[in-house]
Amino acid sequence: MIAFAVKRVLAAIAALSFASFSLATGAFAQDYPKRPVTMIVPFAAGGTSDVIARAVAEQMGIALGQTIVIENVAGAGGSTALARASRAEPDGYTIAIGNAGTNAATYTIYPKLPFTPDSFVPIAMVAKTFGIVALRKDFPAKDLKEFIAYAKANPGKINLGHAGVGSSNYLICKSFVTAAGIDATLVGYRGAAPALTDAVGSQIDGVCDAAASVSQSINEKLVKGLVVGSTVRLATLPELPTSAEAGLPEFEAQGWNGLFAPKGTPPAVIAKLNAAARTAVETDAVKKRFADLSTVAPDAGEHTPELLQQLVTRDVEKYRKMLADDAK
């Protein structure tokens, strides 16, 4: 009888504690946010993730009634930033933008990371991107066929820049050289912007990048577009052939960008952030910015945390197979 009574008391205490916790987190979420929110970008300013993050953050801040401050944390293909995000207080005041590179491929490339996919809670997918391979403007090849022929005649001598091993740009490079069957040197940078700068200056032969950050340079003829890994041509680059049109249909480079919070962030806070993200990508300002960058907002029904989680789970397995040889 005594043991039974003790169990009942313990159960009552547990129920009371849970109720108190629920009330506390509910009240916290109701008042959230009371101060600016930090959005960690895993790469240097000016790259694809940074450009998308800034466009979305501005409108999310308006929806939340608080400023969202961008913090660029470059290094190790985005894993430096994700490590910082995973250690942040799970209170909704630190979130991160990521992609298939930072939040999926990185677990194969860097198997000893201090975080796992379970270290984060998905908030929402905010953009769909398209990968492009662009060359320095004086590269001796006018199209993909000539480029592949040149690369095969000069194995290992072509340098293609990307935003760091594990980044989405690195995945574009890997997919491209694998599909093309060429031997090229992949040069990692601390972000897409410095890689593009070196391609513009002819310090490297080309870059693997997303349309969001390389389109303007192609249109200004600072570099020359080679191919886009998409099934349709991009409105901002109507003369750039798709991979199928260029004779390499195996090259596919369509990616995503999503927002994540540290594990333990209250569901009610995630719901507020999700609602703000949905509102942001549906604004005319973001739609116009995305259109200028050949980036696409998620379709109706693609904003849910559940869908983003499915993308992460799918891509973790996908790149575990593709990048097994790159594990460090």
From TrEMBL:
Q: Where is the signal peptide?
A: 1-29
Q: Which InterPro entries match?
A: BUG, Bug_dom1
- Report TM segments: none
Which keywords describe this protein according to UniProt?
Receptor, Signal
Q: Gene3D superfamilies given for it?
A: Bordetella uptake gene, domain 1, Periplasmic binding protein-like II
Q: Per its UniProt record, what CDD domains does this chain match?
A: PBP2_BugD_Asp
Top-rank taxon: Bacteria
Taken from the record, one Pfam family name reads TctC
Question: Which PANTHER family does the annotation name?
Answer: BLR1237 PROTEIN, TRICARBOXYLATE-BINDING PROTEIN
Entry's family note: Belongs to the UPF0065 (bug) family.
Q: What is this protein called?
A: Tripartite-type tricarboxylate transporter, receptor component TctC
Q: Give the species.
A: Bradyrhizobium shewense
